[in-house]
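Recall that a protein's primary structure is simply its ordered list of amino acids. Everything else, from secondary elements to tertiary packing, is in principle encoded there. The following example makes that idea concrete.
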Amino acid sequence: MSVFNVLKNRGFVEQASDDRLIEELLGEQNITCYIGFDPTATSLHIGSLIPIMALVHMQRGGHRPIALVGGGTGLIGDPSGKSELRRVLTVEDIEANVAGIQKQLSRYLDFSGGKALMLNNAEWLAGLNYIEFLRDIGRHFSVNRMLAAESYRMRLETGLTFVEFNYMLLQSYDFYYLSRHYDCVLQMGGNDQWGNIVAGIDLTRRMSGKQVFGLTFPLITTSQGSKMGKTEKGTIWIDPELTSPYEYYQYWVNTDDADLKRFLALFTFLPMEEIRAVERYADAELNMAKSVLAYEATKITHGDEAARAAWKASAAAFGARTIPGELFPSSSIPRTAAGEDLSAIPAITVDSEILDKGIPAYELFADTGLCSSRGEARRLISQGGAYINGTAIARVDELIGSDRLDGRGEIRLRKGKKNYVIVRPGTS
C-alpha cells in the first residue's frame, strides 16, 4: 500500500495538491519530503505529533524525510493561525530552541546514514541579499493572491505587519531551495499552512519548471472542541523535564470515548484492523483500549521503559486493568499489573518538622500543584473532590500531618479521579 493511502486511512490527509499523482509518486519510487517546525519554544508539544508521526510513516515507507527547523523564519514569525503578532525572539532564543527541537526529533526519526535529514533554514535564509531576493523571488508573488490566503485574511482586521507579510515568500523559498538542493518533491504541514504550501509549489514551478506537491493535515481538536494538548495544568510537552512520562501517559489514558479510535489511528502504529475493532467496544473494553493508547503513545515518545513505569504507576493508583490477549495483540503493553509501583507518580518532599505540625488540607493541595490556588483547593475540598490515601477530605482546614503516612511512609493526595501527587517527609 502506498504511504499516501496509509496516511489517508489513518486520518492524516486534509488537503492534497493532487491526490492521484501523489499516490502514484509515493507508490512507485522513494522520494524526499519535508515538514517545517517553528522554534518558538525549547520543546515541541503534542500538537506537533501529527507532523512528526507523518514523517515517521514516510520513513517507514522507504522515503527520506527532512525535518526543517525554522531558525531563519523563526526570526520573522508565522502569522498562520494567530490572531496577533507573535513575540519576537532573539537569535539566542532561536538557537537554544533549535537545539532542543533537533534533539527531540531524533527520538522519532532515524538520521543515521542519511535516512533522514535535519536542516535549519537559517543556513540559506540568513545570508540572503534583500534586493536580489525581491528581484528574483518577490516578483513571482501577487499581493492580491497573498491577501486571499486564510492566514493573512484573518489578520487584516487585527493588523498584519510587513515583516509577517514576508513569511509566505520565505517559506516558499524554503520549498524551492530544498527541491533544488535535496530533490525534495513533497511538503507537508498543518491545514493552516495550505496557502504557504501552494505558494511554494507555484514558486518552484516558476523558478525551475519542476513539479512538486503539497499535503496538509487536519488541525486536531478533541471531541469537546478543546485544542489538542491543552489541559487545566497547561501544555503537554514532549520534553520529559516539562511533562513527565507519567503525566504524558495520564493525558492519553483520559481520552474521551469519542476520540479514542481517531487517536489510536493517528498517534500509534497499531494495525488499523485492530483499531477499527474499537467501534464494537463498550465500558471496560474502552478503558482497556485507552490504556493501550496511553502506553503506545508514551512508548513512542519516551521509550518502552518509561511507558512501562507509567503504566505500572497508573495501575497501582487507579487499579490494574488486565488486557486480554485478543485485544490489540500487536501492542507490547503488559497484560496484567506486576505488583504496585508508584515510582512514576509525581512526588514532592515536605519538611518533616512542618509535616509533624500538620498542614491545612487546602494549603497542601495548592502547594503541591494539584490546585492552581488555595481558592481552587477550598472549592475542590468543599465539593468532595479531594482525597487523602483514598479517603475524601471532610473539611478545607483539616490538618494533614505525619500521622497520615501510609505503610510506605507516604501520603497519597488525589484530585478528582485523575490527578495524584505523593507527599514524602524529608529535611529542608
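The CA atoms of residues 148 and 195 lie 9 Å apart. The radius of gyration is 25 Å.
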